[in-house]
Amino acid sequence: MGIEGVEEVIIQALNHSERRNILKIINVQEKGALYSDILGELGIPTGTLNYHLKQLEGLIERDEKRRYHLTPLGEQSLRLLFSIGEGLGRNYETYLRVARHSQKRSVHPTVSILIVFGIIINGLLLFIWGYVGYTIITEGGPTFVLGVTGVLSVLGLITLAGLIHALRAAPEYVRKIERKLGIS
C-alpha cells in the first residue's frame, strides 16, 4: 500500500472531530474504553457513534471483554494529532486564520460546475416563465396560468439566489455534497 495509503487512512480518520475525540477517549482509558464510556463522553446518538467506530476500524479494535483499544496505526494517528500544535511559533494564528478562510471558501471544481449549470438552467427557466407571463399579460390568457407563472418565477428567483450564494460562499452544505460525491 505504501506511505500514501497510510497517509490517506490516517487523514481520513482524523478528518472528523468525533473520530479524533473517540481516539482520545480510548487513549485515556488504561484498560480500554467500553462502548458506553465513549457514548457517555461524546453524548451523540448511537447510530452516529456506530458510524464513527466503523470508520476507525484498523485504528481501533475490541478485545474479548468488548473494550476498545488503539492499534499501532491508531497510536500513530494519535501521536500525529498531538504533534500538530508543536513548534508553530507565535505568528501561527495569522496563518491559521488565512488557512481557515481559504478552506471555508473553496469549492471543488466539479461542484462549481454543477452549481453554474444549475444557475444557467434556472436562468433559462426564469426567462421562459417571464416570457409566458408577459405573453399572458399582453395577449390575454387564463389568470390561473399567470398566477402559476408568478409563483414559479418567485421560486426560481429564490433558487437562483441560493445557487449564487452557494457558488460564492461555499457554505457547509456544499462541503457535505462534496464529501458525499467523494470529491472533497
If you had to describe this structure to a student in words, what would you say it looks like?
This protein has 184 residues and is mostly helical. It has two domains: 2-83, Arc Repressor Mutant, subunit A; 104-181. 74% of the residues lie in helices and 5% in strands. The protein is built from nine helices and three strands. It has helices at 2-14, 17-28, 35-42, 46-55, 72-83, 92-105, 109-139, 143-169, 172-181, and strands at residues 33-34, 60-62, 67-70. The chain has a three-stranded antiparallel sheet with strand order 1-3-2. The protein is elongated and about 80 Å long. The two termini are 21 Å apart. 14% of the residues are buried. The model has no long low-confidence stretch (mean pLDDT 84).
Q: What's the total helix number?
A: 9
> What is the beta-strand fraction?
under 5%
CATH H level of the largest domain: which superfamily?
Winged helix-like DNA-binding domain superfamily/Winged helix DNA-binding domain
General shape: elongated
Taking the sheet with the most strands, its summary is: 3 strands, antiparallel
The class by helix and strand makeup works out as mainly alpha
**CATH fold naming of the largest domain:** Arc Repressor Mutant, subunit A
Please give the radius of gyration in angstroms: 25 Å
Spatial order of the strands in the main sheet?
1-3-2
- Secondary-structure element order, N to C: HHEHHEEHHHHH
Mean pLDDT score, rounded?
Answer: 84
What is the CATH architecture descriptor of the largest domain?
A: Orthogonal Bundle
**End-to-end separation:** 21 Å
For the secondary structure, the number of strands is 3
Helix content range of the residues, please? over 70%
The total domain count is 2
Runs in which pLDDT lies below 50 for 5 or more consecutive residues are: none
CATH secondary-structure class of the largest domain: Mainly Alpha
